């Protein structure tokens, strides 16, 4: 069975943990290899890498994550230098909210999730919502 996420940024956190940290979701996506093999158009990372590369983000949106893998995640740690973000927006400064989690519904997909460290955003209630769900949650 495949997990259905409500919040793409929550899904990206799961991919970071499963693909790059635990190496359970393979193959690892690499933006440089992706660009070399992508035939839809020429993607110039040097020119476009300061913004989200739409095709890379779309790859992750379409990526199917087996629900049984999500049991392996007990902690989510968002950091501006995470591999997932560097493969979507290679030169991202981390100074905007484009990867902020805005919805808590996806917590239900993670039976063993205990702790979340998330990006600080304009919706300051999101942290309280995670805490009310029984998570040890804090801003980075």
Percent range for β-strand residues = 5-15%
Number of strands: 3
Distance between the termini: 32 Å
Helix/strand-derived class? mainly alpha
Strand order of the largest sheet: 1-2-3
- Discrete helix count: 6
Low-confidence stretches: none
**What is the H-and-E element order?**
HHHHEHEHE
Radius of gyration: 15 Å
Mean pLDDT score:
96
The major pleated sheet works out as: 3 strands, parallel
Query: Any idea how many domains?
Result: 1
Overall, the morphology is: globular
Query: What proportion of the residues is helical, as a percent range?
Result: 25-40%
Question: What topology emerges from the helices and strands here?
Answer:
Layout: H1 8-21, H2 31-37, H3 45-48, H4 54-62, E1 75-77, H5 83-86, E2 115-118, H6 125-132, E3 136-139
Parallel strand pairs: 1-2, 2-3
Q: What can you see in these coordinates?
A:
This protein has a three-stranded parallel beta sheet. The chain has one domain (8-139). Strand 1, helix 5 (83-86) and strand 2 (115-118) form a beta-alpha-beta unit. It is mainly alpha-helical and 140 residues long. The chain is built from six helices and three strands. This is DUF6892 domain-containing protein.
């Amino acid at each position: 069975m495949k997990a259905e996420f409500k919040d793409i940024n929550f899904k990206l956190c799961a991919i970071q943990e499963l693909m790059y940290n635990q190496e359970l979701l393979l193959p690892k996506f690499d933006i440089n290899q992706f660009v070399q093999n992508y035939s839809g158009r020429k993607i110039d990372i040097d020119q476009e890498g300061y913004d989200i590369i739409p095709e890379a983000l779309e790859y992750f949106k379409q990526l199917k994550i087996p629900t049984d893998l999500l049991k392996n995640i007990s902690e989510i740690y968002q950091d501006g230098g995470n591999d997932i973000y560097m493969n979507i927006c290679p030169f991202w400064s981390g100074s905007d909210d484009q990867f902020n989690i805005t919805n808590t519904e996806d917590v239900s997909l993670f039976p063993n999730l205990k702790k979340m460290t998330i990006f600080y955003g304009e919706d300051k209630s999101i942290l309280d919502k995670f805490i009310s769900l029984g998570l040890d949650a804090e801003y980075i």
